[in-house]
Structure formats: C-alpha cells, structure tokens
Design a protein that fits this description.
52 residues, two-stranded antiparallel ribbon, 2 strands, PKD_Bacteroidetes, PKD-like domain-containing protein, little secondary structure
Amino acid sequence: MRAHAGNATTGNGLSANVISSDVFTNTTGSPLIVVYDIVPVSTDGCEGNTVQ
C-alpha cells in the first residue's frame, strides 16, 4: 500500500473529515482491507477509546 503525496497529515485538532479524500495505491496485485483506528482527543488533550 502506497500513500499519495497529497494525503492529509495525521494529528490532533484536525477536522472530522480531514482524511476523507486521501488516496492510496495497492501495489500488491491482490485486494487489501484497510482499517482506520481513530482515537478521539478532547480539547484538554485527554484520549478517548479507539474506534474503527
């Protein structure tokens, strides 16, 4: 899996849809399943439960 150069940066304080237009290229020739692990972070910096 190769990420395209224009993909969003990860980090705190970003909008909820920041990764919605990211593009990846499957270089394996076989189907892949992509799973995002999202960790919500409060304005105080406290992390919530990871969700997929």
